[in-house]
Amino acid sequence: MSYEDNDFAEENRIGKGAVGRRTFLGAAGAGAVTTTLAGCLGGVDSGGDDGVFKIGHLAPTELQMGRGAERSAQLAVDELNENDGILDQEVELLSKNTGGKPAEAERVTENLVQSDQVDLLVGTFVSEVTQGIIDFVAEMNVPFVITGSADPATVTEYHGSDYETYKNVVRTGPINSDLQAEGMAGYAKYLNEKHGWENVSILADDAAWTGSFRDILPDQIEAAGDLSVVHQDRMSVETDNFNPFLDEASAAGADVVFRFIAHGGAAAFTSTWASNEYPFALEGISVPGMSPEFWGQTEGACLYETTSQSGAGGVTELTGETMDFVESYESEYGGEEPPSKPMYMGFNSYDGIHFYAEAAATADTVDYENDLDTIVDAMLDLEFTGTAGTISLSGKDSEYPNDVKETRNDNDIISNFPITQWQPDGDSGAVECVYPEKDATADHMAPDWL
Q1: What does the alpha-carbon distance between residue 344 and residue 348 come to, in Å, rounded to a whole number?
Q2: Backbone angles phi and psi of 283, in degrees to 5
Q3: Dihedral (C-alpha) 57, 60, 65, 69: value to the nearest 10 degrees?
Q4: CATH 3.20.20.70 holds for 178-310+413-439
Q5: Confidence (pTM)
Q6: For the structural domain made of 3-176+324-391, what CATH number should be given?
Q7: Could you tell me which residues come within 8 angstroms of residue 192 by beta carbon, excluding any fewer than 6 positions away?
Q8: pLDDT digits (tens, 9 = 90+) for 206-216
């Protein structure tokens, strides 16, 4: 299925803003099950010990993003099993398709925890999905490592008000959207200094993950100096005609449009921009644009557009672990259906599993029923070098409890959400890392019609 055929649309048609809190088991009529199973759903140390550590992976696996994450999670599991597993237990991956829908995610998560008795949950892509299962996961105490969704409310509105209930949930990547917005403001300043672009338009999906770009980014850009936000709008995730948005940005005199888009219209957005040669650059975040196959899907219209993404598309040595992982992925899956590289959630899922394995080794337990505090403390104390950067978590009393911290370079620039750009390379184009400059594989290029 191509992006034009709604590859990223369905999982985003699920409401606006953070999902309201509720008790999953009560809503699902499963309160009695909680009592029955509460004493037997701990880690393998405490019940159902078959010598296997089970990881439940959650993603929209019919999409390229979810498929890349599933494959990356399997690579992590295979590597652990080549090195005595987790605390000498064989590791098994149980991957489930959430369909990007809260109701389906609730169903498969319940099955993974109650029927399969997994020892760890990893994944989720859509923030509304993450927030839709968080009460159930917290109720059951199973450790949950978020590796895809970025809405800050997942920790600020849950851990921030009741840390003890939600302490089993951590996010190891990507950095949350508040921090991404700060990074985007720094990038806007870089573009101003490099190209003289002053006037900024912000276009964002009407979805939970983009709230920071709509609410925080404009002031941060204005504060960066020599920059003005001249146009803002939000786009329904069902939008398929982008001319009005682009026309308004052009009429406002925008030099650059920062768009934040995750739904199936991203290819149409890009093609509309390129075919009309709108008088501004296309920057920001495009989730479909992270696909290494996006060049073909847009017939090259994506030339010069950028996107920020964990792992920098697998084209630069972010850490000593990056390219070994990319090469392993390409060797195993490069000849299969897309994606031919892990994509951002693949980097995060691979890192998240290895992060938890190292924390478990430090804690010397995976018995979350009896030793959850020990496991959580080990995760909070861990500084882990992954493929997408260094992972360390903010503590209980921080602004973003249990959330992955941003990393900064010597110029105080956030460096663990780098920017990539499609650039000319024969007939197929190539992804290059263009920011931050320390990790860049090429200079940022302005569209040749500007």
Answers
A1: 6
A2: -130, -175
A3: 10
A4: no
A5: 0.90
A6: 3.40.50.2300
A7: 198, 224, 226, 227
A8: 999 999 999 99
